[in-house]
Write a structure and sequence with these properties.
Shape: globular
Strand content: 15-25%
Helix content: 10-25%
Number of strands: 10
Structural class: alpha/beta
Radius of gyration: 18 Å
Distance between the termini: 12 Å
Largest sheet: 10 strands, mixed
Number of helices: 6
Length: about 250
């Protein structure tokens, strides 16, 4: 397998909801979610248990699902024309380099950081996985902002190819996806998920259209559910439940 191990790691309600309601982005906070999630830092668990080389998020974690590609008034430079990757050696070859990557096929996200300012995240650098649907202006903006990128796919990001490039070009061996249901669902349907790590919160949310753990296309009549093998199940504080499954191959 010439790709990294892929773990999806999420905090969900007992009915599998990733947020309170459609359009509510937890990146900006929500008191109702905080009341059931508590004060624990999910990334502390991720880093301790899985020790990832790369954390993976989707564009919907930063912008709404209806957001259009980023606009660049007067931008006409074409430095990135035809380039399928931008991996500056002075960034890539830093000892201990790790990555915070965003899947952003259409170029909708303008990240506001290159490296986390928090000293505990020293060495973690932004990386964008995009596609040929992103504008040349957006690729130029990423270059000027000092953010490496890989262009994989014509419309949606080709996740399989992206993972192979992360393995071959950047030496990534473990990816933890903390993104939303669409990204998790795309990874699941592509057969790219190796482990599912879920912290189940003691609350039921419901609601039509509220993002769920794997918001993928429905299974066709010729497709089977992804079968799992239990790795562990632990009861935590405040009635939280931590369940880990390996995907059966």
């Amino acid at each position: 397998m010439n790709r990294p191990k892929v773990v999806t790691c999420n905090m969900v309600s007992v009915d599998g909801r990733l947020t309170i309601a459609p359009g509510v982005q937890l990146l900006f906070g929500d008191e109702r979610w905080s009341a059931i999630a508590g004060s624990s830092d999910p990334y502390q668990w991720v880093r301790h248990i899985h020790d990832p080389d790369l954390l993976l998020e989707g564009s919907n974690s930063f912008v709404g699902t209806d957001a259009e590609p980023a606009a660049y008034a007067g931008a006409d430079a074409d430095d990135a024309q035809g380039d399928n990757q931008h991996l500056p050696l002075d960034i890539v070859e830093q000892p201990g380099r790790r990555w915070f990557a965003v899947v952003d096929g259409r170029g909708r996200v303008q990240l506001q950081f290159t490296e986390y300012p928090d000293p505990s995240w020293s060495g973690w650098h932004a990386l964008v996985l995009t596609s040929h649907a992103a504008s040349t202006q957006h690729l130029n903006w990423l270059r000027q902002a000092g953010i490496p990128y890989l262009v994989v796919g014509e419309g949606p990001v080709d996740l399989d190819e992206a993972l192979q490039l992360l393995w071959g070009e950047l030496g990534v061996r473990t990816v933890v996806c903390t993104g939303g249901g669409q990204l998790g669902g795309a990874l699941l349907r592509a057969g790219l998920v190796d482990e599912i790590d879920v912290e189940i919160l003691p609350a039921a949310i419901g609601g039509r259209g509220t993002p769920a753990l794997f918001d993928a296309e429905p299974l066709r009549s010729s497709e089977d559910p992804t079968q799992l093998r239990l790795l562990s199940c632990d009861v935590g504080d405040d009635d939280h439940l931590r369940v880990r499954y390996a995907v059966r191959r």
